[in-house]
Every structure is written in structure tokens, then in C-alpha cells.
């Protein structure tokens, strides 16, 4: 009898274990993860949105070759490097970061503009007109007028203009050919006197022939 009792207890334990195991397999809550895992394996990696656009997770896009979400995106660009993961670039010097510095170009620190005509396009240096300096601001690059009067020496008065400057001389003087110095103006060349004109520094004086005297207007002879 003791042997039969042990066998009955063992059989009861087996039946109980079988029933509990069988009931565990029919719970729907335990089937969902297995089904979702199969679905993810079937669609491919980096898929987050089923039936919505490409379905790719943020930072990934469809690879043209396979049509799967295996191509990483680098929002800031990698320049001469390559994108190896979302917003992670490997640069030509081996460094890694969210972007790679652009190699120095032939157009200088302000970059290039594209000049196009019927023969094609070429990159030209981005410069400002003569008399202007280039400055970077929060709204981009702008050209500002240079005040040449801060460095140019005028014999008379320096007047700054947009893109240049002019030197001005006082009354009775005119600008020389070098556009900086002043010389005496020969007012007599404009024949301001009726008879005779004598030029002087910064002025002139009229006189008359014998038998005439100078009018009160200092130009005519009476």
C-alpha cells in the first residue's frame, strides 16, 4: 500500500503540472509578445510605425537597395565624411561627431557664390564691392561701408561717401590732381573782371585801364 500511494501522488502531480502548463500557453497576454517579435523580424530593423509612410524609426530611412530602414540620417550633414548612425558622422581624419568640418576652399572664409552663364557655372569668391567690408551678422553676411576718412589724409576736409570718400578744399582753393591735396584756384581764368584781374592766394583783385575807375561792385570799370 505505501508503494501504491506514492505512485498515485506522483501521477496527480504530473497531471497538475500538465494542466497548469497547458493553461499557461492559452493566455492571450503571453502570445502577443511572441507575435509582435515575429512581425518585427518579418518587416526588418528600425521599423517603428506600421502602415504610416516608410514606417522607419526617427533617424533612419529606407535604403534604396533593400527597401529596408537601414540607412542612417545625419541632420547636419557629414561634409567629406560619412553617416554611420543617426546624427553620427565619421570624418576623413577618423574623428566622429554630429557633423564634419568643411575643408578650406579656394573662396576664402566667406565661401562662394555660383556664377552661371550659357557656358556653364563656376564658383566665384563671395566679396563685397570696393569700399565695403564684409561682416557676419545674426541674419547672415552683409557688406558695410568703410569710413575711409579714418585712414585717409586730406589736406582739406574729408567727406565719407557710400563706397568711397572725397576731399574738399576751402573757398578760393581747388583739389589737385592727386585728389588729396589742395591748390590755389586762379579765379582770373573765369574772367570775373571787366578790364584787369590779378590773382592772389585764395582770392583775386580787379583793376581798370587809365581813365577808368573800379565800380562799387569791385568787378566793373566806369
TrEMBL record:
The lineage of its organism: Eukaryota, Metazoa, Chordata, Craniata, Vertebrata. The keyword Secreted applies. The keyword DNA repair does not apply. Residues 184-218 form the EGF-like domain. This is VWCE protein. GO terms for molecular function: calcium ion binding. InterPro entries: EGF, EGF-like_Ca-bd_dom, EGF-type_Asp/Asn_hydroxyl_site, EGF_Ca-bd_CS, NOTCH1_EGF-like, vWF_C/EGF_Fibrillin. It comes from the Eukaryota. It is found in: Secreted. It comes from Lanius ludovicianus (Loggerhead shrike). Its main location: secreted. PROSITE patterns: ASX_HYDROXYL, EGF_3, EGF_CA. One of its GO terms (cellular component) is extracellular region. The gene is Vwce_1. Pfam families: EGF_CA. GO terms for biological process: cellular response to virus. Keywords: Disulfide bond, EGF-like domain, Glycoprotein, Secreted, Signal. Residues 1-24 form the signal peptide. CDD domains: EGF_CA.
